[in-house]
Amino acid sequence: MSHPDSTHCHLYGWKDVIEKAYKHKGYYLLAEKDSEIVGALPLIHMKSLIFGNQLVSMPFLNYGGILTDSEEIAEELIKETMRIASSLKASSVEFRHIKPSSAIQSIEGHQTQERTHKVRMILNLPGSRDELLKSFKAKLRSQIFRPEKEGMKAVIGGKELIDSFFGIFSINMRDLGSPVHSIRLFQEICSQFPESVKIGAVNYKDTPVSAGLIFCFRDTVEIPWASTLKEYNRSSPNMLLYWSLMAHGCDQGFKYFDFGRSTPDEGTYKFKGQWGAIPAPLYWYTFTLNGQAIRSNWSDKSRHERLIHHWKRLPIPISNFMGPLIRKHISL
């Protein structure tokens, strides 16, 4: 809570969430000096025959990595990580940082890869929703309120909206050809962080058509997951959804709205940029312990085009059953 680079991804509760939802064991490291905590590192062990054996900080989330002000402490945490990885016979370790890490960059004896192909998109929130609305261009303001004119309404709640959120999210993931997370993951998130997690939804009559989950931590609201039913895209319910969540952030006194990670110049990047969000590079480090080349983990979709094509054609009950069995092993 006291470190300026900490994110909600560093909270200990994620260990319980992931262990309960997906049975991946967590190894949470603390460095202490004179009875004072001077470093922290969350690690999750992911092992499967298809996707390999790895330690990740943090899987399924945008951030994680080593938290310390001392390069010496960072090196000690890395050494302990290497010891754990060796005992688990892990082939690779991945750290997800919001700033460069000289300690990780100086690791010797292992193939190391630094990737800055993703950015986080951050919007400064003013003191009130009225100020925020005034900062938007007229076209954007009209898109925000168009769904309301067409009879849509936005609501913000907690775990009672999980089914609405997951119903939309699972359909959207199937339509993208991507295995969906288990609903158990989101249930555990809401149970573990009831004061920090909110779910926003946009309803048309009695039908949820757009929904997103936000995590409020320190001075920032992050939206890791959001989806909209494509048949309602013409009415732009996602614009009302994002506006309602940003307005909520202003009302609660938060300073920043984090749209999550994006690939520059792709569709989601442009969507987030229209709100005024500014890109900041992410630093993802991967190193191997077995001397083999670093392999991607589902990131190159061109390698899976045939599987994606067939996945899009699955009935929702089947994709919702099969999806988590695969998705739990994909760290992205």
Short description:
This protein has 332 residues and is of the alpha+beta class. The protein is 35% helix and 29% strand. α5 packs across α8.
Could you explain the architecture of this structure?
The protein is built from 11 helices and 14 strands. It is an alpha+beta fold and 332 residues long. The protein has 2 domains: 125 residues, Aminopeptidase, CATH 3.40.630.30; 161 residues, Gcn5-related N-acetyltransferase (GNAT) (Aminopeptidase, 3-Layer(aba) Sandwich). The strands form 2 sheets. Strands 1, 2, 3, 4, 5, 6 and 14 form a 7-stranded mixed β-sheet that branches. Helix 5 packs across helix 8. The two termini are 25 Å apart.
Task: Set out the fold topology.
Layout: H1 13-22, E1 26-33, E2 36-48, E3 52-57, E4 67-68, H2 71-87, E5 92-97, H3 102-105, E6 112-115, E7 119-124, H4 129-134, H5 138-149, E8 152-157, H6 162-176, H7 183-192, E9 197-204, E10 207-217, E11 220-228, H8 237-251, E12 256-262, H9 267-273, E13 278-281, E14 283-288, H10 305-311, H11 316-327
